[in-house]
Design brief:
CATH superfamily of the largest domain: Hexapeptide repeat proteins
Strand content: 25-35%
Number of domains: 2
CATH class of the largest domain: Mainly Beta
Number of helices: 3
CATH topology of the largest domain: UDP N-Acetylglucosamine Acyltransferase, domain 1
Strand order of the largest sheet: 7-10-13-16-19-22-24-25
Order of helices and strands: EHEEEHEHEEEEEEEEEEEEEEEEEEEE
Length: about 220
């Protein structure tokens, strides 16, 4: 059975995840091809030694099974592409680096991307198309929604609930909650680079600083 894998997006995110994808296929002893999809391409080309094509050309490729990792930083674009893939019968592809640490009782939905040096500890539930960049971790008893993005070096401590489409900036620290009062990062919230979050963050706001405070528009 012929299989074709793809990284959707040939920007920095996609080019950083392609080596992770290659690692995974080697680990699984799968010799299938992995290509880039980028809608900026009008004809099939090459990026970093891999074929690169637009989505229409990818659909025309002959393969019994096609699986795609959506390497797009913008979570709402990820969601839109995920819906299109589902309509076309293409599965979401999860990729994990060789040195990712996964502990006990973890549920991770399809389409996730775990970069090198990511740690997911125990009793954790994560939604689809989660991106965890370099050196991020998720501690015990956390629940993470769909289309959540961690920039590099995020420290997500225990008993934290992160709702859909939240973005956690590089080096941000989220204080541990308690089982009866978890810290909640609301849907679509943005936690700025280096922020130290000590309490729950409402949906849709941006917080910055130490301790993190809501960024007011001027």
């Amino acid at each position: 059975m012929t299989k074709l894998y793809a990284i959707y997006g040939a920007s920095g995110c996609g080019r950083s995840l392609m080596p992770v994808a290659r690692q995974q296929l080697a680990r699984e002893q799968d010799s299938s091809e992995v290509v880039f999809i980028d809608d900026a391409f009008t004809e099939i080309g090459a990026i970093n030694g891999h074929r690169a094509m637009n989505y229409a050309d990818f659909l025309n490729e002959s393969a019994a099974v096609k699986s795609v990792q959506i390497a797009i930083a913008h979570s709402h674009v990820r969601e839109k592409i995920a819906h299109r893939l589902a309509q076309d019968g293409i599965t979401l592809w999860s990729i994990y680096a060789d040195n990712v640490v996964l502990m006990d009782q973890i549920e991770i939905a399809e389409g996730s991307a775990l970069s090198p040096f990511v740690t997911i500890t125990s009793n954790i539930k994560i939604g689809k198309c989660f991106h965890a960049n370099l050196y991020s971790y998720v501690e015990h008893d956390c629940i993470i929604g769909d289309f959540v993005t961690f920039a590099p070096g995020v420290k997500c401590n225990g008993n934290i609930h992160i709702e859909d489409h939240a973005y956690i900036g590089a080096g941000a620290v989220i204080k541990q909650g308690t089982p009866d009062r978890p810290v909640v990062i609301g849907r679509g919230a943005i936690v700025g680079m280096g922020a130290v979050v000590t309490k729950s963050v409402p949906a849709g706001v941006t917080v910055v600083g130490n301790p993190a405070r809501i960024l007011k528009s001027k």
